[in-house]
Specification:
about 80 residues, alpha+beta, Ribosomal Protein L24e, Chain: T, two-stranded antiparallel sheet, 4 strands, elongated, Large ribosomal subunit protein bL28, structural constituent of ribosome, Ribosomal_bL28_bact-type, ribosomal protein, Ribosomal_bL28_sf
Amino acid sequence: MSKICEVTGKKVMFGNNVSFSINKTKRRFDANIFKKKFYIPEEDKWVTLNVSSKGIKIINKKGISAVIKDMRANGIVK
């Protein structure tokens, strides 16, 4: 499963762990991604998306149909 949100485009970032003595080592900041199923009543089908917490909030606010429409316009979902 890729760590990219299909709604917002959030993905893994890289940075440093910084110790008390200011030694730096490379680390990864993973996006908070969930594999979640949504029901689209207009099409009478279920869709599984990899979405972040922010993506779930956007879907709750705008509605799954509007989000899927935007994703199709951007070429993310067919």
